[in-house]
Amino acid sequence: MPCEHLQELFALCEKHDLHIASQDAIKVVCRQCHEQEVCPSSLTDGEEVLELPRPKPSKATEQELDSGN
Asked: Rounded to whole angstroms, how far apart are CA atoms 66 and 13?
C-alpha cells in the first residue's frame, strides 16, 4: 500500500487524466516516507507514447527565424 503522499499523487493523476508512457515499469519514490511503489497500471499507457500537437509559430517568430535572430 503506497504512503499517503503517493496516494495523493496517484489521485491527482487520475483526476486530471494524466498518464505516463514507458516500456518499463516505473517506480515512484516518496522521499518523505522513504517508500517506493510501482506506478499503477491505470496511470500508464504501456508502450504507447502520446504526443501533443505542437503549436504553429507566429508570423513574428517565423520572421525572426528567417532573419537569423
From this structure: 40
How remote is the C-alpha of 6 from its chain's centroid?
A: 15
| DSSP code for 8 | H
Under 8 Å between Cβ of 35 and 29: yes
pLDDT tens per residue across all 69 residues of the chain: 788 998 998 899 889 988 877 777 788 899 999 898 887 777 776 555 455 556 666 666 556 556 655
Q: What burial letters (b/e) apply to 14-23, b meaning 16+ CB within 10 Å?
A: eeeeeeeeee
Q: Is the whole-model pTM more than 0.70?
A: no
